[in-house]
Amino acid sequence: MVRPLQLLIYFLLFLLLSGCYRTRSSKGGGDLSRLMENRLVNPADVELPAGYKAEVVATGLTFPTDVAFDAQGQVYAIEAGYSYGEEFLEPKLLRIGPDGSKTTIATGAINGPWTGINFHDNAFYVAEGGQKEGGKILKITSDGTITTLLQNLPTFGDHHTNSPAIGPDGNLYFSTGTATNSGVVGPDNYDMGWLKRKPDFHDIPCQDITLTGQNFTSKAAETGEVKTTGPYLPYGTPATAQQVIQGALPCSGAVFRVSLEGSNLELVAWGLRNPYGLTFAPDGQLYVTENGYDDRGSRPVWGTGDYLWRIQTGQWYGWPDFAGGLAFNGDRFKVPGETAPQPLLASHPATPPRPVASLGVHSSSNGLDFSTAAAFGHVGEAFIAQFGDMAPNVGKVLAPVGFKVVRVNVENGAVTDFAKNKGKEHAPASALATGGLERPVAVKFSPDGTALYIVDFGIMQNTGDKTIPLKGTGVIWKITRTAL
Amino acid sequence: MIKYLLYSSIVLLLIACGTAKRGEPAYAPLATTEPAVVQGKVVFDTFCHKCHPGGEAGLGPAINNKPLPGFLIRFQVRNGLGVMPAFSDKTISDSDLDVLVAYLKTLRKAKEDKPAQAP
Fold first, then answer.
1. What positions does the domain Glucose/Sorbosone dehydrogenase occupy (chain A) (predicted)?
2. pLDDT (tens digit, 0 to 9) for every residue of chain A, 484 residues total?
């Protein structure tokens, strides 16, 4: 029997412990990361389930984003050549020696970031982000020759051309992220850097859409002039009710396939904000990770997770009017203290499905791969690298989100942590002053499936008005099972 | 009255000091023999995980280290609190809420040392 006084104390505790969100400051991993030129690296600081061990494969990488294995199982890595924070470098394909040595195989143009690589039939296929010249799909042979298979992809903006994956049909699948957070160009894109370079760039729908006519006002960063901007339009261009925006291919926020020669571009799916990781499950089904909305810009959206999707050909997945299959209506996804985002489209191309799994808000759930070997365990589960929040730039969080590797049961959506840092609190290693994981951006199993490689981008700090990535702090980790 | 205040102070102190980490990889895997707990994890991961990843803090506060009784968990889920939205019985059915509470109570206790070797 609960007594009245006990009940009262429970309620007071309940209210106290729930806290007041609005009065609390952001304490995300982006806020807490420390800029350590000499990053500590110590596998003993990585917490793993019983029976697994971590090793260091390579250190000192600058913005690594993916690994690949050639026919002999030799490890290769790519360095992106671009990072948020407007850090432009030459992207590189590196061969990683058994001793962690790095040999440059190919050097790309300053048009990064290189976001993903796959090896197939004696060649590497790379997705080039396209910050300067637009996105590209590249083929690189073992002598370092780079051939452009596809170019002029519309990814000059917030998100890039991502993740080449070879499908069971022999085609190359890749994705394009959206130009903006939620469809409207604004000062946040100026802060990102690209609006200065591409003042007319905006999102492109994959088929004709009709707008509700919502407009958004903001002050231009350089002049202070008030600009009125509609969705899918250049900054400062207003929309009208029932205005039709012509669809085009290639478009924003979509998954495509092309032949391995770069011909016959086809749309696979669209309405995805930033479909970062693409991988085929052992049964041939395509899965995609999507980075969800941020609390930033002219149309901020609050409380939407990142998602794992099972991709159906021809499907629209809801961006910019749904998150995780839920429509923007009423107060849903309202930033505390502000007005809720309302639909931009007068009618929707389809009702989006529900995701396979919902992942942490701002976790930046990126590269993924499926376990296929009993020797490693968790066969059939998807392992996902979570880069971690970029708070406060993407919105406020009460604690670091991401900065780890999770596994997902794709049958029921259950999410379980697999690799994260030791310690009382969860955080990137630099915040904990330990030698563990910083920002896992990709995971890939070795060809025999017995080792999981984690690509750790390195240290990145977010200060609200700036993003500061630290060169030379990237690490490649390897996880194996020590006992069966 | 003094006894309750003392209890409350102790509870608050424990909360302030206690880690919210539970289950894998820091501890032994969550016991999954009870169907309600298994189903509860699916409900949690569908509706709660994104703001409270694994029950730890994220967009919202940690819930693994809060000693809330079941009836208050139900109240908060149904009514929301602060910026947390309410979940009606159309979104989370009564039976799903039952297994969610069972899961959260089990998760809270999932601090057994993990075995040295793989299970």
1. 262-336
2. 456 666 666 655 555 555 578 889 999 999 999 999 899 999 999 999 999 999 999 999 999 999 999 999 999 999 999 999 999 999 999 999 999 999 999 999 999 999 999 999 999 999 999 999 999 999 999 999 999 999 999 999 999 999 999 999 999 999 999 999 999 999 999 999 999 999 999 999 999 999 999 999 999 988 999 999 999 999 999 999 999 999 999 999 999 999 999 999 999 999 999 999 999 999 999 999 999 999 999 999 999 999 999 999 999 999 999 999 999 988 889 999 999 999 999 999 999 999 999 999 999 999 999 999 999 999 999 999 999 999 999 999 999 999 999 999 999 999 999 999 999 999 999 999 999 999 999 999 999 999 999 999 999 999 998 999 999 999 999 999 997 6
Residues in B touching A305 (Cβ below 8 Å): 49-51
Are A384 and B75 in contact by the 8 Å Cβ rule? The answer is: no
| Host H or E run for residue A54 | strand A52-61
Residue matched to tokens 């049909």: A169
Q: Quote the minimal CA–CA distance from A162 to chain B in Å.
A: 24
Domains of chain A: 22-481 (2.120.10.30)
CATH class of B2-108: mainly alpha
Looking at the predicted complex, does its ipTM rise above 0.90? yes
- Residue A358 has its nearest CB partner, among B8, B50, B118, at B50
DSSP string over A238-298: ---TTPEEPP-SS-SSEEEEE-TTS-S-EEEEE--SEEEEEEE-TTS-EEEEEE---S-SS
**Residue A269: how many CB atoms within 10 A of its CB?**
22
